[in-house]
Amino acid sequence: MRLIIVANRLPVTTVRRGTTLAFKPSIGGLTTGLNALLRAGNPKGLDDYCWVGWPGLPPAGFDDEALRAALAEMPRYVPVLYSKKLYKDFYSGFCNSCLWPLFHALPTLTTYQEWQWTQYVRANELYLEALAPMLREDDVVWVHDYHLMLLPQMIRQKFPRITIGFFLHIPFPHYEIFRILPSAWRSQLLKGMMGADVVGFHTNDYAQDFLKCILKISGLENKDGLVMTQNRIVAVRNYPMGIAYDDFHRAALETEASGKKNEFLKDFQGQKLILSVDRLDYTKGVVNRLLGYEQFLAKHPEWHQKVSLIMVLAPSRTDVSLYGRMKKEIEMLVGKINGAFGQPHWTPVLYQYQTKSFDELSLLYVTADVALITPLRDGMNLIAKEFVASRSRQNGVLILSELAGASQELIEAKIINPFHIREIADAIDESLNLTEAEQHDAMTRMRRQIKGYDVVRWADDFVGDLTKSRKTMDALRQK
Ligand code: F6P
């Protein structure tokens, strides 16, 4: 059996290097996680894989043909190319100005445009067109994320017997939020997802919210997460996505042994380091995080010159206006904090608007004393898990938002409500004062948890349910 991964993005994104067209690794949890999985080998019972997705718009001076030619050297990657219109109305538009804010429970930031919906349908059809010529009935198709919620049903219509999984990497909202969508859109989105045999979410809460929408909007009941449609059974369950634990653990050991850590820390003698890493996104709660840090500095002058916040924000969705506004707000606040508290030899916030490589990130995870991760809402948040996996000495503190999916597994973290600035400020102070023994205890438990359910287990679990569902359907058909 072949595994066909379908996701909005390919694991590589095109860039211009000098006069040539090149590729860089795509950022974000989905590609990082699935890439790690494929490096580890094919999931259980599958012989081969390919990945269908978008490689980004061709850089200036190159066209689609050049892009296709360059990708031909990576035969496992099947490109879906967008027109500029599709990029604007589907990717920046319906996906990231409607579904993204709404599913993160931010309806006041959500826009609803009919022409963007039309392009969303078109984009899903485009993925189907790329898939159809290559699909075989015995393939396992695994569709990912909110960009492609209509696709499972589109594939089902063409290939009634094929096995399809759908996994949502962002939160599924509560019924009262989901129903804000125009009724035709919300019914079609649910119908689209229900074309799959297995529908997966990061947490049980998201799965339950989805089942409630299925009941209230599509009128279908479930028994223990199994939904009977006219002629099929759809299994709905949570699969908390893991990370490549061993990669981070190994990199951390190497960083410690090579002396890179000590070299890095030379510039921070006598200081504690707080680390914050995200894509620059308004759902990540960066403004509240900075306000919490500002309040902490105001309340605790004893920590001045003894702590620095390293804030890394990777550029993301820069054509969506809300992201541009958020960047300005963050940069003003960083300037305000550094202006108010900074000293000639101390910059309280070290702000970096950059995409870091794996090695650079690993070094930061190893050297920080505290990771400060405060999204307003987040499907999972793999950064929290990467930090924990990198703490091979079992020390360090994770401050984690209760509204990140990861908080349901990493219960020994210092859990805070990201909307309450004082909670963030107090958590920073408490974390910096935790004893070695307290740190060790919490970190050991969290490491055990994420080692036990890493990205390979996650995929095996999901694909295992898909193969089970295939057997059930085959048996039912034979009766
Ligand atoms: O986690 C949600 C998600 O959209 C993923 O699909 C992706 O890995 C990440 O955010 C980055 O987003 P984008 O592909 O829009 O850059």
Automatic annotation (TrEMBL):
Coiled coil region boundaries: none
Listed GO MF terms: alpha,alpha-trehalose-phosphate synthase (UDP-forming) activity; trehalose-phosphatase activity
CC annotations in GO: cytosol
GO terms of biological process kind: trehalose biosynthetic process
Regions that span the bilayer: none
Homology family: In the C-terminal section; belongs to the trehalose phosphatase family.
Name this polypeptide is given: Trehalose 6-phosphate synthase/phosphatase
Protein source organism: Chryseolinea serpens
Residues of the whole record sequence present: 1 to 479 of 737
